[in-house]
Amino acid sequence: MINGWTAPGFEDVAEAFERNFTDRAELGAAFAAYEQGQLVVDLWGGTADRETGRAWDRDTVQLMFSGTKGLAAACVLLLVQRGQVSLDDPLSRYWPEFGAEGKGGITIAEVLSHQARLPWVEAGYADLLDHDVMAAHLAAQAPAADPRAAFMYHAITWGWLVDELVRRVDGRTVSEFFAAEYAVPLGLEVWIGLPEELHWRATTMVAPEGVLVDGPWTELHRPNPLWVPGAEKIWNSFEYRTAGLAAVGGFATARGMARFYVSLVGEVDGVRILTPETVELGRREIRRGIEPTWGSELAYGAGFELQTDPVDTFGHPGAGGSRHGAWPGRETAYSYLMNEVRVGPDDRSITLLTALSRGSRARGR
Fold this sequence. Notes:
Layout: E1 2-6, H1 11-24, E2 28-35, E3 38-49, E4 54-55, E5 62-63, H2 68-81, H3 108-112, H4 131-140, H5 157-170, H6 174-186, E6 190-192, H7 216-219, H8 232-235, H9 238-243, E7 250-252, H10 254-262, H11 276-282, E8 287-291, E9 296-300, E10 305-307, E11 313-315, E12 323-327, E13 332-338, H12 348-362
Antiparallel strand pairs: 1-3, 2-3, 2-13, 3-4, 5-7, 6-7, 8-9, 9-10, 10-11, 11-12, 12-13
Helix pairs in contact: 1-12, 2-5, 2-6, 2-11, 4-5
């Protein structure tokens, strides 16, 4: 059963959303979009928990893995806007311990754009959910010598590096900072670390069958602990939901994430947190190249993944299929969330964004 609504001109989005269930065996999902500060698409449907049969409803919240990185990036940019840090500053200026093993010159911009040469934790992940321990491991670690690490996606380590920066500068965790500076003033249904009283609203994640591929990490015998067979036990655990990992621990409704991104390209109910100049700084290209984990070209700004084809967008996707971002030229933002993780070819989000683009153009945007 598909629920929700679309504004006039966006009916194709609802049709594409329904086809994901009928033609692509979608389990449970939500899709939302804002345009010029107004909600124009708000859809949800399917099953939130396969075992119990609980339906996905308007208030269901979803783990979005690396979609969280866009939220954490916005926290750093607000510190930049306030003159508390500069992207060109070395991270060790605020976190002196990080300068060990020759890392003193690694800049905040390099950290945000996955160039810190710390894509894994040499000491292991036994304390995965303990920020202090994992940050200390990275501070003591030498940059990876493997040349592929020069521009390699820092799937989990990115979060500990960014969170520690925010803590050192502001005193709050990324979770606390985002809640106070973005979620509350914008009225967002978005959390980095899900409050215990809201766990009943979360879906149960479903992992794909077979082995999850990890590229160079696996080749170097340093597998991502959240991307191995059986990892769904971690994803769905109480401990993981509450941990607030700044790279991969965010929960949201699609409506909340779309509202967050549209706030970066315009006002929402009279509120705007980041100035246009700060947003432009955040989406200015820092590094483009072939990312070895996937063997494809990627471009990054200050924590945001950038795309220029077919439209100029910025944001950050999440593992398994979710996608979140904004089209500045159209003052449009979107979020697609789902609870069945897929690897390999997956056009669930692409069909929705294509339909959204048609609706936006039809309205003269």
